[in-house]
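## retry 2 of 3
previous attempt timed out at serialization; input unchanged, resubmitting
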Amino acid sequence: MDMNKFKRDYRFKSEEAYNDSRRNKILIIACIVIIIVLSVLIKYL
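## retry succeeded, writing output
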């Protein structure tokens, strides 16, 4: 197991995981906003 290769792989994996978690947060926030908008529309209809 080459240490430099291991470090490079680890950095790449952690960046990938960070990008995935940021995308998931955006999706969750979008879902919450859509639910709020729908509930407001249902109240006023």
